[in-house]
Amino acid sequence: MMMYRIARRLSRPYFHARMKIRFEGEENVPAEGPFILVSNHQSDLDPMLLHAFCPRLLCTLAKSSVFRSSLMRWLAPRVGAIPTRRYQVDPQSVRVVLRLLDEGWGVGVFPEGERSWDATLQAFRTGSMRLVLKSDVPIIPCGITGTYDVCPRWDDMKWHKVGRGRETVTIRYGKPILFGRHDCRASREQARPVATQVIKEALLSLIA
Question: Is the confidence at residue 178, as pLDDT, over 90?
């Protein structure tokens, strides 16, 4: 992950120059061992900021279209991106995530599955919650606010416009949540409604 570490060092000054970034609750991110970081998703900037500033190196699930070009197919995995197919079950990405967790990595998941159109928290994808319940690792809720104002989904080019002010972006990490392991599908389906509500409430409190 040498490329990842280099990218972190190079990107941090750039992001600090473009926006005012505040961090809260960083002590809630485990110093070692596997965990899943579950975050809301307001902007394309969200995964980039998490990769740059999370206290631990982080791999995140990214839509497969990110990997279309030969450059991104080479670069994205080297900076922690894991390809996944949206709107459908992707057993391969699940296997990759579980292997990374077994190796002690942190993995970032955006349970909404896509960026919000209006900065509010959207419904969670069923597959994301099944993965959370299958993992048996600490779940760290992460609320990101302000990135919608910098780069909303409906105006991706806003980020690139010259002369914009430095908006404030806040990244808040909540306390770990433990759901235990649910190896069988029936157990995951039974636990999913409660787990979904618990994570939703945690994220809403972090972005309030």
Answer: yes
Q: Which domain CATH number covers 15?
A: 3.40.1130.10
**Exposed, middle or buried, 81 (CB in 10 Å: 0-12/13-18/19+)?**
buried
pLDDT digits (tens, 9 = 90+) for 104-118: 999 999 999 999 999
User: What is the number of domains present in the chain?
Assistant: 1
The least confident of 4-8, 71-75, 132-136, 190-194 is 71-75
Considering the chain, what is the average pLDDT of its residues?
89
Domain that holds residue 28: 2-207
Q: Which ranges of the chain would DSSP assign to H, the alpha helix? A: 2-18, 45-53, 70-75, 91-102, 126-135, 147-150, 185-207
Q: How many CB atoms lie within 10 A of CB 198?
A: 14
Q: How far apart are the first and last CA of the chain?
A: 35
Cα 52 to Cα 11: distance, rounded to the nearest angstrom: 7
User: 132-171 burial, b if ≥16 CB within 10 A, otherwise e?
Assistant: bbbbebbbbbbbbbbbbbbbbbeeeeebeeeeeeeeebbb
List the one residue out of 68, 100, 62, 65 whose CA is nearest residue 82.
62
Q: Residues 127-164: pLDDT tens digits?
A: 999 999 999 999 999 999 999 988 888 776 555 554 45
